[in-house]
Structures are given as structure tokens and as C-alpha cells.
Design goal:
26% strand; 154 residues; six-stranded mixed sheet; alpha/beta; Mannitol-specific EII, Chain A
């Protein structure tokens, strides 16, 4: 599974203006509704519910909020580069400036886990994160995120 299977250009935000985790998730839920056709409130609720279980701030300024929803036909990804880092209660207690949201159908157990692993692997790459932090252009962010592992290795 590649990131290009999850993400469309319209799902990439280059300068999300949020001052809190809740505000960032609200804005991302609105954008997810636009891209997926899902109800904004349902997306926000599932993301907040997941955060109550434990932070999705995985460290190094990265968060991967995710959840499963009924009435969704495939996995959807959204990416946002925040214009200012925010407190996300991340495991390393550092503020977050890169957020990748993953939404999956309720029955997508293995696919959901594969997609989470793929996103996590991509965002653990320090070089990729440096490139993401170095641009404020949605098209460039999309190109960085959807570049295949083979292309990156070349």
C-alpha cells in the first residue's frame, strides 16, 4: 500500500492555522468531510474518541490521528503542515507541526493497520520530515508524501 492510495491533493493543507489539538482536529474533520463526503461531526467525534484513548502524537513533531467509521467505502488520508506547532500531548512532550489523519471503514482491520504502518514508516524518515517542514506549498507536500519508497531510495 502506498500513500498515493490514501491521499489526494485536496486532502493536503500547507499552512493549517490552529492553536490547539481540538481546533486542528475540527479543521481536519471539515476537510475530511469535503474530500470523503462523510459527515464532519462523525469524523471529528471518531478522532476525538481516539485521542481520549491515548494521544496520537507519536513524537518528533508528528501526529497520526485515526479512526474507523461506518458508511465509508475506502481508506482516506489527509495531511496538514501546521503554521505553528501545537501541544498534542505527544509521547515525547514536543509540540506537533505535521499531522496525517487516516480514516478507515469499520471492517478494515488489516488494511487500516498496514496504512498506519506505512504512514508511520514514512514520517519516521527524518529526511522526508525535513522536506515537509521546508515547504509551504500543498502540491510540493503532496509530491513528497506520495513519492514511492523506490523513488526515495534512488
Amino acid at each position: 500500500m502506498e500513500v498515493s492510495d490514501l491521499l489526494v491533493l485536496e486532502g493536503v493543507t500547507a499552512d493549517l492555522k490552529a492553536t490547539s489539538k481540538k481546533q486542528a482536529l475540527q479543521d481536519l474533520a471539515r476537510r475530511a468531510a469535503e474530500v470523503s463526503g462523510l459527515p464532519e461531526r462523525a469524523v471529528f467525534d471518531v478522532l476525538m474518541e481516539r485521542e481520549r484513548l491515548g494521544t496520537t502524537g507519536v513524537g518528533n513533531g508528528i501526529a497520526i490521528p485515526h479512526g474507523k467509521l461506518p458508511n465509508i467505502d475506502r481508506l482516506y488520508g489527509l495531511f496538514a503542515r501546521l503554521n505553528q506547532p501545537i501541544d498534542f500531548q505527544a509521547i515525547d512532550e514536543r509540540p506537533v507541526d505535521l499531522v496525517f489523519v487516516l480514516l478507515a471503514p469499520e471492517g478494515a482491520g488489516a488494511d487500516h493497520l498496514k496504512a498506519l504502518a506505512r504512514i508511520s514508516r514514512l514520517l519516521r524518515d527524518q529526511h522526508v520530515c525535513e522536506k515537509l517542514r521546508g515547504t509551504d506549498n500543498a502540491e510540493a507536500l503532496f509530491a513528497i508524501l506520495t513519492e514511492t519508497e523506490e523513488d526515495r531510495a534512488a
